[in-house]
Amino acid sequence: MNIQGLSQSLDLVCPILKKTTTPVNLNNSDFEEVYSLPEEELLDVIRKNSIPNSNQVQMRLPMHSDGTPYKIGIWGDSHTAAHFFSEELIRTIGLDPDTALPSFIPPSMGRSGVRLPIRKYCQSPNWKFNYSYTGVNQEFYGPALLKLNSNNPESYLWIDFRSKNNQSNSLQKLTILFSKTIQTTAKIGIQVDNRAEEIFDIQNVNGSNLQIQGERLFGVVKIRLIEGAISIDGFIPQYDATPKVFLDTFGIPSATVKGLQSIQKDYVKNLQAPQNYDLVILEYGTNEGSHLPFDGNTYANLLRESLKNFRSIYPQSSCLLMGPTDRGVWYKRTYTKDKKKLVKPAPMPNFLMYSKIHQEITQIQGQVGKEFSCSSWSWQDAMGGPGGAYTWIKQSPPLMAKDLIHLTVQGYQETARQFSRDINLQQMLNTKSNAPN
After folding, report:
1. Which domain holds residue 151?
2. What is the pLDDT of residue 335?
3. Is residue 2, in this structure, part of any structural domain at all?
4. What is the pTM of this model?
5. What is the domain-level CATH number for residue 75?
6. Do both 204 and 263 map to the same domain?
7. Are residues 392 and 279 in the same domain?
8. For the chain (length 437 residues), average pLDDT per consecutive 10?
9. Quick check: bond before 397 cis, omega within 30?
10. Does residue 232 sit in the same domain as residue 251?
11. Residue 12 · residue 109 · CB < 8 Å
């Protein structure tokens, strides 16, 4: 699709959708659940027995003598999906969202818990996802590890691909990647900025794509399904100015490392998706540790098979495994509504149950990772070791979220700064920094 003579991109305004209402439960319970953290005496014991190991990681990246930007890819679960960690990582090397841009944008618009490095999107409610980590659909995936699908006529997806800070148009070219669907063809409408919509017949076979290129820069692309079915693997942008670093984040809430087994080398090649990452970071373990009872041998085998497949696609990239954060549990007790009577005495929980599992997962990552030339970094140790979740939630402002699983925005920013220092990221990328310490 060639476009000419475009005027400046306008700000994207989403259609107004009818909101569905959820019935309110008017039943007034006679009981109240009270959640407590460990007492200070127990916390002192936890801290004394939770001395973290050194988290320094020795890594090197190849020199780019021709001045081409370094490429970093981050795969993970909800801890990376919200992009708070990635955004702070960019700041630690002295860059910003206009100088560190994505080379591949996953089609995870509309997925709860995901933030993308784009300005805005509008989406109709009838899109669905296929996820690689579920193993439900026996199909190949690109680096996004998910597909965005619809077979509903008039489904729309509007995206402003400009960065949040950039006030001008920024794309010279955009490639929309389609994957195979049950139907062989689809008819879609494409509108670029305020230009008239154009209609295309899409042959939905592996590796098919639609390229949008203009004589002038553009920012907003609107996709409308007219008939048939489409499945989107992602978007490859080409910018008017070369960024200093390419940073791609492929975080999916609830994901496990199993999803890496569904990436297929020839499929990624046909998509023309990036394969030449200088550094790949794999952040998994929290969701694997949630399945009880946890078995270390089973997890090690899962990790080994996943890394084997991943390394077949990215064999030359420097590789780092990030262990899960620390995780805590609440002490839950049930009282009468007036709190005068404890209805059912609750046994004291094992406050370090998940902490110990996460510690074992990190240790296994360190051992198995060596088999595939991957370094390992302990997110748990960056929080002070097992039990750190309880200390972090008591900080002001809190660094741990109330679920004792996720971090707050400040918590993700704090660990991103620590991570950058531990792997010496600024020196590896040779960027001139005015970043915070």
Report:
1. 118-238
2. 63
3. no
4. 0.90
5. 3.40.50.1110
6. no
7. yes
8. 62 79 50 65 68 72 82 97 96 90 95 94 95 83 94 95 71 87 76 90 66 86 93 92 93 97 88 87 97 96 97 95 95 67 69 94 97 96 92 94 96 96 88 48
9. yes
10. no
11. no
How far is 157 from 282, CA to CA, in rounded Å?
29
Contact 212, 218 (CB under 8 A): yes
Which 8-state DSSP code applies to residue 118? S
The residues, ordered by sequence, that sit 6+ positions from 332 with a Cβ below 8 Å of its Cβ are 33, 34, 35, 36, 346, 349
Q: Are 247 and 87 in contact (CB under 8 A)?
A: no
Q: Which long-range contacts (CB under 8 A, 24 or more apart) does 130-137 make?
A: 130/231, 131/252, 131/255, 131/259, 132/258, 132/259, 132/260, 132/261, 132/262, 132/263, 133/252, 133/254, 133/255, 133/256, 133/258, 133/259, 133/262, 135/258, 135/262
Residue 90 contacts residue 96 (beta carbons within 8 Å): yes
Last residue of a domain, one of 221, 238, 255: 238
- Domain C-terminal end among 211, 238, 265: 238
CATH for 215: 2.60.120.260
Q: What is the pLDDT of residue 188?
A: 92
Provide the β-strand partners of residue 245.
70, 100
Task: Tell me whether residue 9 is in a domain.
Answer: no
Same domain for 78 and 127: no
The SS3 of residue 325 is coil
Number of folded domains in the chain?
A: 2
Quick one: pLDDT at residue 33? 57
Measured CA to CA, the distance from residue 118 to residue 213 in angstroms comes to 19
**Is residue 6 included in any domain, yes or no?**
no
**pLDDT for the residue numbered 89:** 95
Same domain, 273 and 140: no
Q: Determine the pLDDT at residue 402.
A: 92
Residue 149: partners with Cβ closer than 8 Å, 6 or more residues away: 127, 128, 129, 130, 181, 229, 230, 231, 232
Judge if 384 and 268 occupy the same domain: yes
Burial of 195 (0-12, 13-18, 19+ CB in 10 A): middle
